[in-house]
Write a structure and sequence with these properties.
This protein is an alpha+beta fold and 409 residues long. The protein folds into 2 domains: 15-182 and 316-408, Zn peptidases (Aminopeptidase); 183-299, Alpha-Beta Plaits, CATH 3.30.70.360. Helices cover 30% and strands 27% of the residues. The protein has 10 helices and 23 strands. The protein has helices spanning 15-26, 36-48, 111-125, 153-162, 207-219, 268-285, 324-335, 351-357, 382-400, 404-408; strands spanning 53-56, 62-67, 70-80, 101-102, 105-107, 136-144, 166-169, 177-181, 183-192, 196-197, 225-226, 230-231, 234-242, 249-250, 253-262, 290-295, 297-301, 307-311, 313-314, 317-318, 342-345, 362-364, 379-381. The strands form 7 sheets. Strands 1-2-6-3-7-22 form a 6-stranded mixed beta sheet, with helices on both faces. A hairpin with a 3-residue loop joins strand 11 and strand 12 (230-231). Helix 1 (15-26) runs antiparallel to helix 3 and helix 7 (324-335) packs across helix 9 (382-400). It is elongated, with a radius of gyration of 24 Å. The chain starts with 14 loop residues before the first helix and ends with a helix. Mean pLDDT is 94; it is low at 1-9 and 403-409.
């Protein structure tokens, strides 16, 4: 598969091999918690492409390493292996696990989010293994597990083991360079009532009615704002009453989950404070009102048998525009014939771990549109996948200090 050749002085990317591997990856189902087959696929591909090492860790993350012959930084490129499920198969016009090519695009679950980006990483970086004598530092690629349900938890295992100096997140950015993102917290709010027969509701207290009043009050809370990242919105994502399903019973409990987008520096206490203050105000005016709020904690079983667990709180992060990693990546990408705008992700990524928790300089760069994930007929432009492969190699050269003119020769 050929595309317009970029003017970068970098080692050539085997475009046909890259696209064929993307198809193979899309044909390998990898729902969250069941990524084993695709992890082995990527491990074997990295080994075949000449990575010095390729292995799978205890959580099921696949990791590849190219070790340079000169001292330098430890640079980690990360993408996740898992995808959301296909729950609306009848609406797809292609097989979601067929890897079909149509009108210059690859179709399938995970095309945009984000198997093709991970494939572009390993195919774009693999040629550098032939020029390790000019490579400063070490390049790692990780395919991490369970990102769709627990952003950063799988990557945390990789970060702890590798201790990288910088991280490149490959989530879809339409080839723009991202230097930040809002974080995310899941907040569970529960209202309590008193059960009664629905034919005699006056002797009970309906927890759902209490929740409906609370939701309206929560919607009226002012959202914090960041000039770069935007609003720290609070959005209802699910609600359920108890007993459920109801059978002539006034519900005695109602639980709603809210998705709160986090801004830089916000903690669990910052998220909960205005909600708890509102709960107190409502209780002071209604002696029957009882409610509580908390950050959700959860567990995620991995296909290897271990279980990851923690709070569903994923911090925001911003890397300054003048940060060395941002500057080096921009310069390198421009030399490669790309001219990426500088912006931020609108969604949450594994960067919440590397930058938000670990404080490691992190950027994002990937093929595909940001609104192309989790959709019917998910697809990605082949030209962007190829350009991303070249871009990943350029970033590695720019950050490691490799002599790209020597590599090109």
């Amino acid at each position: 598969m050929q595309t317009e050749r970029l003017s970068a002085p970098v080692a050539a990317v085997d475009e046909a091999s890259l696209i064929a591997f993307c198809q193979h990856a899309l044909q390998t189902k990898s729902y969250t918690g069941n990524e084993g087959a695709v992890a082995e696929l990527f491990r074997a591909q990295m080994a075949a492409l000449g990575f010095d090492r390729a292995w799978i860790d205890e959580a099921g993350n696949v990791i590849g390493e190219i070790k340079g012959g000169l001292p330098g930084p430890r640079l980690l490129f990360d993408g996740h292996l898992d995808t959301v499920e296909v729950s609306d198969l009848e609406k797809w016009t292609t097989d979601p696990f067929g890897g079909e090519i149509r009108n210059g695009c690859l179709y399938g679950r995970g095309a945009s989010d984000m198997k093709c980006a991970l494939a572009a990483m390993i195919h774009g970086l693999a040629p550098l293994a032939r020029h390790k004598d000019q490579l400063s530092g070490t390049i790692f690629v990780s395919g991490t597990v369970c990102e769709e349900t627990f952003e950063g938890l799988g990557l945390g295992k990789v970060v702890d083991a590798l201790q990288p100096d910088a991280v490149v997140i490959g989530e879809a950015s339409a080839l723009s360079l991202k230097r930040g993102q809002r974080g995310r917290a899941e907040v569970a709010v529960t209202t309590y009532g008193k059960a009664a027969h629905s034919s005699n509701p006056s002797v009970g207290i309906n927890a759902v009615y209490a929740m409906s009043r609370l939701i309206a009050a929560l919607q009226a809370l002012p959202a914090p704002h960041d000039d770069f990242l935007g609003a720290g919105i609070l959005e209802l994502t699910d609600i359920i009453s108890a007993p459920y399903p109801g059978a002539s019973v006034v519900p005695h409990r109602c639980r709603a989950t809210f998705d709160r987008r986090l801004l830089p520096g916000e903690t669990a206490a910052d998220v909960l404070a205005p909600i708890q203050r509102l709960l107190g105000e409502m209780a002071s005016t209604d002696p029957h009102f009882q409610a509580e709020a908390a950050i959700v904690s959860a567990e995620q079983p991995c296909y290897t048998g271990i279980t990851l667990s923690g709070e569903r709180l994923f911090p925001a992060w911003v890397l300054p525009e003048h940060a060395p990693l941002v500057v080096q990546a921009l310069v390198a990408l421009r030399k490669a014939g790309l001219n990426p705008p500088l912006s931020h992700y609108s969604f949450c990524t594994n960067g919440s771990c590397s930058a938000g928790l670990a404080g490691i300089p992190t950027i994002g760069f990937g093929p595909g549109r940001e609104d192309g994930a989790h959709v019917v007929d998910e697809h990605i432009e082949i030209a962007q996948v190829i350009a991303a492969a070249i871009g990943y190699q350029a970033i590695a050269c720019g950050v490691s200090g490799i002599n790209s003119k020597e590599v090109a020769s």
